Amino acid sequence: MSVFGTLIVLAFLALAHLTNAERVLGAYVFQRHGDRTAKSWPPTNLTNLGYNQEYMTGTFFHDRYISSNSSFQIDGISTEKVNLKQVTASAPQDDVIENSGEGFLQGLYPPIGSAAAETLRNGSTIDSPMNGYQLIPMSDVQSGSGSEDNSWLQSTSSCNKAELSSDNYYSSSSYEDLLSSTKSLYQSLSPLINGTFNSTELSYENAYTIWDLIHVALIHNSTSTFPSSDLLTDQTVQELLVLANEHEYNLAYNSSDTIRAVAGMTLAGEVLAALNETITSGGKSKLNIQFGAYAPFLSYFGLAGLTSVNANFTGVPDYASSMAWELVTNDTSTGIPSTSDISVRFLFHNGSAIDGSEQLQAYPLFGQSTLELPWAQFVDKSNEFSITSQEQWCSSCGNTTGICSSTSDNTGSGSSSGSSGSSTGSGMSLGVAGVIGAMVTLGVLVGLFVLSMLIFGLRFVPKSALARAKRGSDASITPIVKENAA
Question: Could you say which protein family the record assigns here (predicted)?
Fold first, then answer.
């Protein structure tokens, strides 16, 4: 083939590549906190290892979504200086989780040095602290506060029905069987952890907190303070991990009682709302990051049918694990295309990106065979279980107090016709109540006015009579209401 012919072929190949080029329109990331101290010894704290894990994972997502060199760069996102209209971050009130978020965000948008300097009117230059450190605020999410200081998975859900559902696991036959069959295993650990757990606490009932203590010790404690003896062989460690996973997954999800997975339901609603905002805003909102604990992972895995894709989805994800939902399109025009041209891709990475040996891997959602789901289908499938409003959360959880007091009526139905904060205790909307109140007030004033006329002998005088009276009198002003001469 001639050189000219080769150039034509290469040109067509390049054109084909551009025509089929994928654009990432936006993304939602749910990020687990980094390595921490043990739950058995609150308050828990983020370790230096955990802080580093989060920083490196944030750097990974910078390279994927922010860097101009990335084939997965979010369309139109600011590459150097963060645009706070494009990026949203949130976390529950929890020291471990919030500090993890700070570390992640430092990696996502690193300091920009002299580019952050500011020149004042008088000509002086103000350098930004910490070499142009970029501040990205985090808003609060309602669920998950204080989760890393609590050992029970549902401890911070505040959802009455979810807590009752999880409690039901402790009376199930599968739980009773494991409680009995593993008794000797947990009792054998007494010489190692009797300073934290007494003999009555050494059972499958505390499977996760026992595993958590041992897991933290194997990472941080020296062999002199926590010896790896015959009591803690590799086989025993693996068995304890499997039991802890079994315990927590059954507290987080149950196919016949899905309210147990309220954490995943709430997360699904937040993902829907954020991705929809990316579309409806014309792409102004581009990247959402939420930081949290492992409960939403396990709950969402069950709800989205991921456990049938890979059995590993029934296990507690490692520190600094990531879930991501990407809005993608093959439409080559600029801006946000029609929703019929938009799809959603789900990705997961177990553990931090600190070693760089693994990348995010895509998995099919909802039992589908494809990795990319059309937007409309993603919405429909997600809406089968997602919680998208406070009113829906209160109704689903059966909560009628606290934040749900404004959405529960006097009959105890647990819901109202308005959204949270827009209804009265009787279920009447605030707008209707205001109109009725104004009408009642007006009626009272009219009644008082009429009563005063009767008491003082006042009467209305027609406008024509006033005019005649004015012409026949030297008075400059004729009162609208005057005394009855009789």
Answer: Belongs to the histidine acid phosphatase family.
Domain boundary among 388, 412, 447: 388
Same domain, 94 and 151: yes
Query: Are 201 and 269 in a shared domain?
Result: yes
> Which residue type occupies 238?
Q
| pLDDT reported for residue 21 | 81
Q: Which among 333, 363, 388 is the end of a domain?
A: 388
Q: What CATH number does residue 364 fall under? A: 3.40.50.1240
pLDDT number for residue 358: 63
Enumerate residues 6+ apart whose C-beta is below 8 A from 482.
458, 459, 461
| Cα(154)–Cα(142) distance, integer angstroms | 14
435-481 pLDDT per residue, tens: 334 444 445 444 544 444 444 454 544 444 444 444 444 433 333 33
CA distance 464 to 304: 79
Per-residue confidence (pLDDT) for residue 221, from 0 to 100: 86
Give a yes or no: residue 10 inside a domain: no
**Contact (CB, 8 A) for 101 and 154:** no
Task: Among 97-101, 260-264, 377-381, 416-420, name the one with the lowest average pLDDT.
Answer: 416-420
This prediction's pTM: 0.79
E strand or H helix at 381? helix 375-383
The dihedrals phi and psi of 367, each to the nearest 5 degrees, come to 75, 15
Q: Phi, psi at residue 401, to the nearest 5°?
A: -120, 175
Domain count, the chain: 2
Where in the sequence is the domain holding 440, given as residue range(s)?
Answer: 430-483
Same domain, 219 and 342: yes
Please indicate, yes or no, whether residues 316 and 167 belong to a single structural domain of this protein: yes
Q: How confident is the model at residue 356 (pLDDT cuts 50, 70, 90)?
A: low
State the first-to-last Cα distance of the chain, in angstroms, to the nearest integer: 121
Residues 327 and 462 in one domain: no
Distance (Å, whole) CA 305 – CA 307? 6
- Are residues 460 and 337 located together in one domain of the fold? no
CB atoms within 10 A of CB 89: 21
